[in-house]
Automatic annotation (TrEMBL):
<dbReference type="Pfam" id="PF05195">
    <property type="entry name" value="AMP_N"/>
</dbReference>
<dbReference type="Pfam" id="PF00557">
    <property type="entry name" value="Peptidase_M24"/>
</dbReference>
<dbReference type="InterPro" id="IPR029149">
    <property type="entry name" value="Creatin/AminoP/Spt16_N"/>
</dbReference>
<feature type="region of interest" description="Disordered">
    <location>
        <begin position="1"/>
        <end position="35"/>
    </location>
</feature>
<comment type="similarity">
    <text>Belongs to the peptidase M24B family.</text>
</comment>
<dbReference type="GO" id="GO:0006508">
    <property type="term" value="P:proteolysis"/>
</dbReference>
<keyword id="KW-0464">Manganese</keyword>
<dbReference type="GO" id="GO:0005829">
    <property type="term" value="C:cytosol"/>
</dbReference>
<dbReference type="InterPro" id="IPR036005">
    <property type="entry name" value="Creatinase/aminopeptidase-like"/>
</dbReference>
<keyword id="KW-0031">Aminopeptidase</keyword>
<dbReference type="GO" id="GO:0070006">
    <property type="term" value="F:metalloaminopeptidase activity"/>
</dbReference>
<keyword id="KW-0378">Hydrolase</keyword>
<dbReference type="InterPro" id="IPR000994">
    <property type="entry name" value="Pept_M24"/>
</dbReference>
<protein>
    <recommendedName>
        <fullName>Xaa-Pro aminopeptidase</fullName>
        <ecNumber>3.4.11.9</ecNumber>
    </recommendedName>
</protein>
<dbReference type="GO" id="GO:0030145">
    <property type="term" value="F:manganese ion binding"/>
</dbReference>
<dbReference type="InterPro" id="IPR052433">
    <property type="entry name" value="X-Pro_dipept-like"/>
</dbReference>
<dbReference type="InterPro" id="IPR007865">
    <property type="entry name" value="Aminopep_P_N"/>
</dbReference>
Amino acid sequence: MTVSEHHSSRPQAEGDGAAEAPVFTARKNGQEQTVSEELADWMRTGWADTESRDPQPIEQAAYTAKRREALSARFPGERLVVPAGNLKTRSNDTEYPFRPSCDYVYLSGDQSDDGCLVLEPRSGGGHDATVYLRPRSNRDNGEFWLDGHGELWSGRRHSLAESAQRLGLQAHDVRRLPEVLSEAPEVPVRILRGHDASLEEVVGGLRAQSADSAETAAERDEELAVALHDQRLVKDEWEVAQLQSAVDATVLGFGDVAEALPQARATSERYIEGTFFLRARVEGNDVGYGTIAASGPNSTTLHWMRNDGPVREGELLLLDAGVETTTLYTADVTRTLPVSGRFTPLQRRVYDLVYAAQEAAIAALAPGRPFTEYHRVAQRTLAEGLVEWGLLEGPVDRVVELGLQRRYTLHGTGHMLGLDVHDCAKARTETHLYGDLRPGMVLTVEPGLYFQPDDLTVPEELRGIGVRIEDDVLVTSEGNRVLSAGLPRTADDVEAWLAQRLP
Ligand code: GLY
Ligand code: MN
Ligand code: MN
């Protein structure tokens, strides 16, 4: 947003008899603001110099530099534009909390709205990286305090010099970016779409001068998006540490929830959601996705996020929640807990089968193994149990071939995890869904069984039971490491863990 201002000596409305008074006018959120020249002058002065002369580089600066190098090698001679995105209006002058695009964070370590990273090809090969940012608010033109996005309202920003130091990047004023891009329109360009419509328009304008059709341009941009997700499939050691820290905070949040079960019983699932959220905000940035706090029959609704149901003695509570770190990496963990502290024999039976499927799936995670395999073994284990219970008619091979168990298993066994909860979704199928596991990949392992309350194909006592166990697992060079091992997984361990926390 820009601040338009007028200094004027404007007569008051004719006939009101007032003397002419100097006024300062600015626009804030579309509304004209008029303040006296005296106040405007006064607000320009009397501020201390707060420039930090020696800001510390962010921890991940060395890693973001390597990531940019890898991307640079993939697109020689091309200009790459990776926007952070803009604030989104919720209503009037209120915005949603801002979350920058993951690829921008991955490559820059920065989280500023309106930011943009540009990799500019060098003539001798490689790229120069520059981050374009909003500079500090101008105090002379009133932007600082009269614009709703000025620093007086939204907090101090880093100066461009500070950002350059912190991020290990050249930093320039983002308002100059359209002009900078226009200076060399002949350089082939790719932009990461879906985050900044005005920058896409600028790039589109430049492309209008090239031979690229709109379709070719869209394909080239998609190649950039795919390349970034491909690259993000394997986490570097700093990212693994972030994910571990997201999981550690999540473990604490699950402990908080266990202790809060009596209050949840007296209120609703919202108490669970709120309890976890408190931990997420204190330890990290936020929750990494909408918390699923599903008690009783709600546990059979996969994306139960209304969280407004009761939490009753004797029911199972399925809690699927993850803390997102301040660096924006998220955990994704599920535990299914007996609200009263002990599983009924039937609940335990369902739980044990899901646990067996999870154990089999975790054992299938090792470098060189196909990504599809852990899903296959989990589904097979669940199908075997369902046939044994008489819920499905065997043989198991037929059940699995036709996918009949899916009536009760419903979803895949897991996904990549990182800056996004469902990370790297655009990665090429040959490196991801039909690829082999590599050390540094982090995945969720989350089999489940869900018997809908109105499913007449299962005995009545099973209806309304939903169980999922979800852990976050790192593929290592030797096999794998369960990052969320701080939480109990077996039914016995869950009961013992609850016993320590329930009053
Ligand atoms: N929390 C969403 C998922 O488990 O994929
Ligand atoms: Mn989950
Ligand atoms: Mn998940």
